[in-house]
Specification:
single chain, four-stranded antiparallel β-sheet, elongated
Length: about 170
């Protein structure tokens, strides 16, 4: 479990020399449960860009915790179900949505999770990293850059060095 972390902690899937960022984690999020539950190697890796505090629990105490605290077991099961639903949605998006829609959808997801809303504006106080966003949306960086330019020109997105802002009213029009 992440005790303290900025929003730049990644759960990553690596294949050969390619990476796919699965999600951005934040304080209070957990990772690695699958390996503790089924005893198999982790299916993904985690990496951080900032100093982070992590609570680590070994397999035996974890299993004892699951046996004796149903409320914790239930929350873990709910979290794993949500991750499966998110994965199903991601497969759907990659299959049925065009690149532009996937980029905008991922910007909105980041805004909903990490942003502060004021009316129709959502400010996300973290720099927009093209590599990370391209991986999350499943697009090439040149496609991402094209979409970002377009939505900036339309006033939907405003970028600054350490934050970006989405104007939902312009997104709807």
């Amino acid at each position: 479990m992440l005790i303290s972390a900025d929003s730049r902690f990644f759960d990553q899937f690596r294949h050969s020399c390619h990476f796919k960022n699965l999600t951005l984690l934040q304080s209070g999020d957990s990772f690695g449960e699958l390996s503790l539950i089924d005893g198999r190697p982790r299916s993904a890796s985690a990496a951080t860009l900032e100093p982070t505090s992590v609570l680590v629990i070994a397999e035996q105490p974890f299993h004892e915790l699951l046996r004796t605290h149903y409320d914790i077991t239930r929350r873990i099961m709910a979290e794993l179900c949500q991750r499966l639903r998110d994965t199903n949605q991601h497969v759907h998006d990659l299959t049925f949505l065009d690149s532009r829609t996937r980029v905008i959808k991922n910007l909105i997801l980041l805004a909903n999770r990490h942003g502060q809303r004021s009316g129709n504006l959502i400010a996300i106080r973290m720099p927009l990293n093209y590599d990370e966003l391209a991986q999350m949306a499943g697009v090439q960086k040149n496609v991402l850059a094209e979409v970002i330019r377009d939505i900036e020109d339309r006033g939907i997105l405003r970028l600054s060095p350490n934050e970006y802002t989405l104007d939902l009213s312009k997104l709807r029009s």
